[in-house]
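hey so i finaly got around to running the thing on Importin 5 from Nothoprocta perdicaria. pasting the sequence first so u can double check i didnt mess up the copy paste, my clipboard has been acting weird all day
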Amino acid sequence: FLFLSSKETEWMKVSGNLWEEDFMVIGETYENIPGQSKITFLLQAIRNTAAAEEARQMAAVLLRRLLSSAFEEVYPALSPDDQTSIKTGLLLIIQLETQSSMRKKICDIVAELARNLIDEDGNNQWPEVLKFLFDSVSSQNVGLREAALHIFWNFPGIFGNQQQHYLEVIKRMLVQCMQDQEHPSIKTLSARAAAAFVLANEHNLPLLKHFADLLPGILQAVNDSCYQNDDSVLKSLVEIADSVPKYLRPHLEPTLQLSLKLCADASLSNMQRQLALEVIVTLSETAAAMLRRHTNVVAQAIPQMLAMMVDLEEDEDWANADELEDDDFDSNAVAGESALDRMACGLGGKLVLPMIKEHIMQMLQNRLEEKATACQMLVSNRTVLVSYLLLD
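ok and heres what it spat out for the 3d tokens, dont ask me to read them lol
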């Protein structure tokens, strides 16, 4: 590795006591270090297990950002030996690291470096990282399996122009991990990795068709992770609905039914319920023709949206407020109102408005005395009002 100057040694010293030092001093010292040397001493800071965990994590974040923003300025200037040492060192640190959060940050660095080492022809100039992935995903060490999946999730294009060659291996790896009943983290990570791979190949129709049988596993992971207070896979499903809705077509009915179930489950957080509804609403915008064939689901989604719209905490001043508070934008009421408008625009009034009218009068009668302000919000919604006026 490159020899550290006095300025670099100074930074290493203050970073070891990161939370006791002035951040301005640390930042100034860091910026004064030559770019090529930053990689080396940041890696050394990460390796220093005697340092505070926060200091090591900051070094990891800085190294990833450096590779992301200034790779061409700093990495090619290193000698081949230094480059090899960095690549070897990163993979070794992952294998030795005992802290899960720190291991993930190192995996982020590996993914970023691998992303930059794919040349214009798609050649992966770091073949050792592929071997590391294959070895780790088959390891008995759960931490290493998590590391392999995290790297692949972060950079699903890591196989470069060899992706087609490894396609069956990739699929087998993901299927195997999604079937791991003993380790929920593996199941969740593999589902997120599968979703990321689908999103990265959104225009590859043969690949999407070949990987269609992974969707039931992704849906199961969505369900399981939500009840473990983790909405990461559900967010991935929303992304698929937005960018690759055609991938959902072979299993659209179970996708919609799962979304309805989660949306209706009051034991889940508001954010999770809103995300589940977002899957359906997004599909009404990105795949309207596909969703119109499932009018039963649309009919079940409408009362869910209306119920969200009247899910308001009592506030006597709400009706007189000129603007929504910041917290209101995350509320079920606002989410339900927005979803109703978007679905009506996406699927068309002829389909949606009769379904709305079927429910609003009963809701207004039932809640008029109980929740006057909520009912005011309900009838003030333009979609509900139009449906009432045009179809009365």
